[in-house]
Design brief:
The protein is built from 3 helices and 7 strands. It is α+β, with helices and mostly antiparallel strands. The radius of gyration is 16 Å and the shape is globular. It binds cobalt (II) ion.
């Protein structure tokens, strides 16, 4: 499912963002898309721990209606996802991305990054487009993953 554009930058959006922060922290994640809490809006948050390993609320990037302005280069990164807990796989990504987006009040902003933030942005925007990172794996790796996943579902 592809998430819908946010049109109203109102209290319900702010409540959603605040709830998403609490969920992300509770699940020990560095990013979360609204669809992961059952809301199909183009909303995502990212909070990369600071040098003390803390993820302060005020350091949370709140990214609404993101659009890629540029995507360049190529890198690989070992990714995990709160939607498939405990699974980490190497995924191919762009090295350098630039996005335009809106903040919780609708103000337009932009981010350029070529490090971990760039990876996180691409991972979370995939969620908004209805994709999960395991879909990016090679067929062979994906089959292996699906096997392991089924096995795990049975033992739970
Ligand atoms: Co994810």
């Amino acid at each position: 499912m592809v998430s819908r554009e946010v049109k109203h930058f109102d209290q319900s959006l702010h409540t959603l963002l605040d709830d998403m922060y609490d969920t992300m922290i509770a699940k020990k994640g560095v990013g979360l898309a609204a669809i992961q809490v059952g809301v199909d809006l183009r909303v995502l948050i990212i909070n990369i721990p600071d040098e003390n390993g803390k993820q302060l609320r005020e350091n949370t990037l709140e990214i609404i209606n993101p659009i890629f302005v540029s995507q360049e280069g190529c890198t690989k990164f070992q990714e995990g996802c709160l939607s498939v807990p405990g699974v980490y796989e190497e995924v191919q990504r762009f090295q350098n991305v630039e996005i335009n987006y809106q903040d919780r009040n609708g103000n337009i902003s932009k981010i350029t990054d070529d490090d971990f933030l760039a990876i996180a942005i691409q991972h979370e925007i995939d969620h908004l487009d209805g994709k999960v990172f395991i879909e990016k794996l090679s067929i062979l790796k994906r089959k292996k993953f699906e096997k392991e996943w089924k096995k795990r579902q049975k033992t739970q």
